[in-house]
Amino acid sequence: MAYIIDGHNLIGALTGLLPGIDLGQPDDEARLIDRLLSYRAQGAGEMIVFFDSSPLGWGLSGLSQQAPPAARSVMKIYYATPGRTADDEIVEYVRGRSEPGQYAVVTNDQELSARVRALGASVLPSTEFAAQMTRRSRTRRRGADVAEAFAPNPRDPAYADLYAGFLAAEKLRQESAGAAPVSMATWIERLYFGDPQLQVRAARWLGQSRDAAAAAPLRDALTHSDAAVRAEAALALGTLHSRESARALCSVLVGDGNSMVREAAAQALGSIGGAPAVKALEAAAQGDAKGKVRKAAEASLAAIRARRTANRS
Question: What is the rounded CA–CA span in Å between residue 258 and residue 260?
């Protein structure tokens, strides 16, 4: 996935969050590019940055030659041609893509958001992107061992209340900020385009939403590179009781290399049930290399059998 960045809009969102970033600075574009280069080096996706027309007349005929050589080698930096805005150029750029769904436009501009969504692109608010940048500037993840160590543990007895607690906190945050509730479409975008911490939150929310439309993006998240995101997606599919997701969860239970993710898949399959789930759970209960996964599979099998008994009585 690639980010198309509304440059001056993002500078505005970063003002007050990162030192040295302000729209009033004469070199604000260069300062933003420097920050984006640092963020890109930490593993962020491809970036295409658009600014409004430069007083020096740099245009869309090519990348700005005033940009640092390092920036030109890893990201595209465009200035709008005279008489046009960065918004117009962004829309034209999206319209020219064969797969616009592979791009997320970073902007808080509602009109621009509507225009690019109509073309098939997603939108990531500049405020959200700015928050990701500031979090990455404070701390960097150092490998899969750290990700697993701090990931949610499905075995925790308090885990059953995690979704409810998360939603309550999210609602309180929105009310205290006077913000409108976040839409389903926005949470799906965050699942695809947020940093792993935001994607974990999005997976939790989508599971608790009980909306069938959340199942497909959550299944996509089962292949995420971050184990915590995969585990949350599996648990969320269980919360949705998504029967059409059972096959994907069975594959995760059999083939995921992370035991926490396999454990989450076992728990989710216990909520969903069905013959494919039972078969996969029986195999995991007998043959998984990790005891905690075997125990989770056994518990899920017991839950499925108990429901069957209750239904017959």
Answer: 6
CATH code of 150-312, in short, is 1.25.10.10
- Residue 13 confidence (pLDDT): 86
- Return the CA Rg of the chain: 22
pLDDT for the residue 141? 42
pTM of the model: 0.49
The pLDDT, as a whole number, for residue 157 is 43
Q: Are 116 and 125 in contact (CB under 8 A)?
A: no
The CATH code for residues 2-137 is 3.40.50
Q: What pLDDT is stored for residue 44 in this prediction?
A: 65
Helix extents (H) in the chain: 7-14, 28-41, 69-74, 86-95, 110-118, 126-138, 144-149, 162-177, 184-193, 196-209, 215-221, 227-240, 246-255, 259-272, 275-287, 291-312
Q: What is the DSSP letter of 18?
A: S
Q: CA distances (Å), 74 to each of 32, 151, 266, in order?
A: 14, 31, 41
Q: How far is 67 from 292, CA to CA, in rounded Å?
A: 53
| Domain ranges, ordered by start, for the chain | 2-137, 150-312
Q: Is the dihedral of CA 100, 101, 103, 105 positive or negative?
A: positive
Beta-carbon contacts of 210 under 8 Å, excluding residues fewer than 6 positions away, are 239, 240
Position 168 scores a pLDDT of 47
51: its two tokens: 């600014």
Residue 245 is predicted with a pLDDT of 93
Q: Which two tokens stand for residue 254?
A: 């059999």
The Cα–Cα gap between 249 and 268 comes to: 8
- Eight-class DSSP state of 225: S
Low-confidence ranges of the chain (pLDDT < 70): 41-44, 53-74, 136-182, 194, 313
